[in-house]
Amino acid sequence: MILTSKMGSSAVAAAVAVACGAAYAATPVATPATFSAEGNATAAATAIYAATVTVTLGSDYIANDTVVLGLSGASFIAGTSTLGTSYNTPVTCGSGGNTATLGFLSRSTSSANYRVTSVAGTQNNAVCSFSLPISRNSATSGTQTVSWTANTAQSGLVFDAASVVATIGSVRTQFTAPSTVTVLNGVVDVDSGRYQFAGGHDSGSVLSATGASSDTLSFTLQNRTSDNGAAVLTSVVGVISGDFSFVDGGDTTAGCSAADLGAGHGRISATGATLSINSACSTLTFTATTAGAVVISLGTGSSSTTPTNGGVLTAPQSFTVAPLTYSYAGASGGTTGSASVSFNSTGSAGAWTLNGSISKISYMPYGTGISRIVYITNRSNQSGGVSATAINEAGVSCAIANVATAPKGAVTNLSAGLDAGVAACYGASYSGKVAFEITANIPGNKAEVYSAYNVNGNRVIVVNDTNGKTVTSGNTQN
Fold it and tell me: Which long-range CB contacts under 8 A does 89-98 form with residues at least 24 apart?
């Protein structure tokens, strides 16, 4: 009995806990916040999240017992000079005649320390409420929790230690991949001379009737503005790669420029973002200042098969989108930052196919004493223009826009047009090897290319993917 009266109730609780192999357990509780990783990282150095934690005591206390609130996954703003008095005042646990008053002692980055200054009645099941200053800059990943430990005044034995922690928050990225993505999937129509798409552009798996002159890439940019401490979005920039040379011609300057976008029949336009294009017509950059829906329309914008400017649609081809760059600033005077966010799991923005004939000749020599023999047979009821792309041994690619016209039901010599294109691309005296990709605006299964060359009177047949019976095409009509 003498031991009990001198030790006090908290010491008795600690002694019993040691003897019995169990501890009294306080219960800390908090309402978890969902933090923005970007917002917290760019917040001002003194920015605070005031975490409210309530603790239900599991034992009685006496004066001079001490309490430690431990923080994991983030840091307290230590000291008192920048916090005023709101986080450093005494805390009263319980009410009525059953209370314990905790006086603030100190705070490090990982713990807040209190001492019991007075008690009344019993404290078991009394509830304490704390407001804790969490540094936003320190909470940039993972989960943030608070623990509770009480120590006896006389000997520092642990008692009333919480068996659980209170989760005050978790961190996630504020900016995620776009949703509701519909990629480009137009079928370039040879019936229109490759100035239009067949049957309108394909939205998902169903052909829409919105007009055969354009195909659309649409998506919704994401910004979790409801996250706690959300950063302020300033811009989202994405770069689409492909062959956009069909827009060139909206102005008098060679190469693509801003004047070509939306000008004449070489049309690329957007809602929800602004557009720019590089001079090589190979990258299209979109910039949005807010999250939300973006729709980019690509096509010739032509209802005619003979538009006044701009070029034909290039197909087949694939489009890609580099990871998007989100730029943002911390709230209330913080710093700035940027995040790279994948457009989708593959980086694909879709592809265009062609419902015409595409033939590939992998080898054709040029030089003294060598001539080419290339014909196309058109078995369809449709006449169509023939163009080609040449690639030489150095990997230099060159477009040959007008090789010939292939009349319906006829055989057409392509040799002269191909030779003229090679001379224009690589010089009249070019000597070397060239590969050709020949595109004819006629149904693919109705076309066949014959390819050979003559060396000093000896004819050598070159197998291509039509006389080799591998036809790359989509249209089987006519």
Answer: 90/117, 91/128, 91/129, 91/130, 92/128, 93/55, 93/57, 93/123, 93/126, 93/127, 93/128, 94/57, 94/121, 94/123, 94/126, 94/127, 94/128, 95/126, 96/121, 97/121, 98/122, 98/123, 98/126
DSSP state of 437: E
Backbone angles phi, psi at 109, to 5 degrees: -70, -20
Clarify whether residues 223 and 340 are in a common domain: yes
Does residue 478 belong to any structural domain of this protein?
no
Residue 418 CB partners (closer than 8 Å, separation 6+): 364, 372, 374, 388, 390, 400, 403, 436
- In sequence order, the β-bridge partners of residue 297 are 216, 269
Closest CA to 327 of 227, 391, 233, 428: 233
Whether residue 190 is found in the same domain as residue 316 = yes
How many domains does the chain divide into? 3
Looking at the structure, tell me whether residues 362 and 429 fall in a common domain.
Answer: yes
Domain boundaries, position 436:
357-461
* 139, 171 Cβ separation under 8 angstroms: yes
The residue among 362, 316, 379 whose CA lies nearest residue 464 is 362
Q: Any bridge partners for residue 404, and if so which?
A: 386
Angstrom CA distances, 371 to 86, 454, 458, stand at 92, 5, 10
Q: How many CB atoms lie within 10 A of CB 104?
A: 17
| Digit-coded pLDDT (tens) for 302-353 | 555 555 556 778 888 999 999 999 999 998 778 999 999 999 999 999 999 8
CATH code, domain carrying 392: 2.60.290.11
Give pTM, 2 decimals. 0.76
Q: What is the pLDDT of residues 378-391, one digit of tens each?
A: 998 888 889 999 99
Q: What is the dihedral of CA 42, 45, 49, 55, to 10 degrees?
A: 130
If asked whether residues 332 and 402 sit together in one domain, one would say no
Distance CA 248, CA 267 (A): 9
The reply to whether omega before 133 is within 30° of 0 (cis) is: no
Yes or no: say if 158 and 66 are a contact pair by the CB < 8 Å rule. no
Report yes or no: 267 and 299 within 8 Å, Cβ to Cβ.
Answer: yes
Rounded distance between C-alpha atoms, residue 361 and residue 399, angstroms: 15
